Amino acid sequence: MDDTLLALSEAAGIATRWRDVRGTEHQVSPETQRALLKALGLDAETEADIADAHQRLSAPPSRPPPLIATVQGGEPLPLPGARPGHRFKLAWEEGGTLEGRLDDAGRLPTLDRVGYHRLSLDTVAMAIAVAPSRCPSLVEIGALPHLDAKPWTLAVQIPSLRRAGDGGAGDFTALGDLAEAAARHGAAGLAISPTHAQFAARSGKFLPYSPSSRLFLNPLLADPDAVLPGAAPAVVPTDAVLIDWPAVAAGRQARLRALFETASDDPRFLAFRAEGGRALEEHARFEALHTHLLASDASLWHWRDWPMALRSPQAPGVQAFAREHAGEVAFHAFCQWIADASLADAAARAGAAGMPLGLIADLAVGTDGAGSHAWQRQDSILDAASVGAPPDIFSPLGQDWGLATFSPLSLAAHGFAAFIEMLRANLRHAGGLRIDHAMGLRRLWLVPRGAGPADGAYLRYPLREMLHLLALEAHRHAAIVMGEDLGTLPEGFAQDITDAGMLGMRVLWFERGEAGGFRDPAHWTREAAAMTTTHDLPTVVGWWRGRDIDWREDLALLPDADAERRAREAERESLWQCLSATGSASGPRPAEDNPIPFLDAAIAQVGRSACELAILPLEDAMAEVEQPNLPGTVEGHPNWERRMPGEAATMLDAPDVAARLASFTAARRA
């Protein structure tokens, strides 16, 4: 059975072998193969099962999928199973038709009209997507040059922002305040933290990269006053250093409920709800149902454990619940309206302030399998496996991130509808999109439910089609695309995304030569975004002071803290020498407790990089010591709880901060 099982796994997209960071090859166990095949909807317990699964994979579909193919403009399109000379009729998306015959290879002629078009072959109708060859460039968007320089943006964790009357955490109005302030200092946009929907029933926790849905927004980031000024109750002021998420959530939900009581008949809300259609209605039903069930039984967190009559949006019990709790369902739809309208306001303010990129949204790699998205899209999202990472030097047991993701087989069978839907939702108010763990466009490490992280395997994804659709949707929304491409990548992947017009990421700490020394920024990749650090890494000041090492030592996350400190000391010397050699720094190396000269030099170094775009985290602009998130921790470190020291509208005007931003702009002109 092993040979036939291996063949089936490979045919289904499961890589049966993988190579670790040391170059050692590993064979995926039969148990893992069977578990992942089952997650994909293919039984493989017996030879008969395997034969049947092979037949299902190889058999032509009984009817064409909604989207049969994607192609780059200028390429002929082969149609599997079509006859040479077959007559066709193509209805262009923008109107008009093209009629003719397939060529001798059964292909459509070269197509140069970008869009989603309807193809008819006899009585069979299907859609095809014609994509541009690349995602939009900074030049095409009008962001390069910006103010006679290569563009730069700030990166911001939205909850960290402050404004008067915010109730203890940042919101979309504070984001708009920051956009206007940053534009005055020369920023071309803001790269923002994920705005995905969390769980209304778990509003006391904030996990931006483990959302309930990537289709909808987090109402806790909304500002009702941006939509209905003065209609919501006043907020109790707070100047706390850390965000108290349970208190913030309670206060903001109370405001939204009070507002709903007076504005539920607002014509704008009714129009938004009608436009949102089935997807919005199902999300609102999930939120209401989830909250209702948990109020009586805390074990019903995952929809998989709900009564059978409630486990899918189409189930009779869900329809009955929606009728009986129509007001509660409407409330959750109302929350989405307020969130959408206040995010739209922030985006409009960024554009009006002169930012050509506006807001660069952040797309998480997956969703919580217990959430709304997985419940709604059970035909496209894998329920019995989660995304993670194989064992490596830093995580010898591997990682299980507990995130659900798309089934590549189902995506293709359903015309990539769920992927397109997700892209559109996240590009709705954005001038750019950052794709977290962009390698997931080609492969993801999946861990079967109940297995350990090391007992997973890579599942391949249809990279070509997904890049085509990404380019098409990015052009329709006039947005750049950036892929988080850090770490070990599959062979050829970096070139694949570069060819597709995606910007990679180049982080100061990781830009090293073969001998381990830091690289001159003039040699960094042009088609990328340069940055000092990320939300998962130490701030520049924190790195210089070794604050990240202190945290990991205190939380018993380091086997040898002294060795880490010795290594950091050597890195300080190496990086300072590089900064001095490139002209970003001068004079003797500053002491560990004097990080500001190093911070200013590091910012200048990133600014003068060859990268088309540069991103400065707000924490570094403000010379903050602490990083937003410490990976590998759930308790012990205040992840996603830190706040900025000043108000979003004015904090960039502090003399030291303004000077830092001016230096960054000057470096982008160099």
Automatic annotation (TrEMBL):
Q: Which InterPro entries match?
A: GH (IPR017853), Glyco_hydro_77 (IPR003385)
Enzyme class, UniProt record, top EC level: transferase
Q: Recite the UniProt keywords alphabetically.
A: Carbohydrate metabolism, Glycosyltransferase, Transferase
What SUPFAM superfamilies does this protein map onto? (Trans)glycosidases (SSF51445)
- GO molecular function, a single term: 4-alpha-glucanotransferase activity
Its BP terms in the Gene Ontology are:
carbohydrate metabolic process
One Pfam family in the UniProt entry: Glyco_hydro_77
The UniProt similarity line reads: Belongs to the disproportionating enzyme family.
Name recorded for this polypeptide = 4-alpha-glucanotransferase
Answer whether the UniProt record assigns the keyword Secreted to this protein: no
EC numbers listed for it are: 2.4.1.25
Kindly state which reaction or reactions the protein catalyses.
Transfers a segment of a (1->4)-alpha-D-glucan to a new position in an acceptor, which may be glucose or a (1->4)-alpha-D-glucan
- Species lineage, top-down? Bacteria, Pseudomonadati, Pseudomonadota, Alphaproteobacteria, Acetobacterales
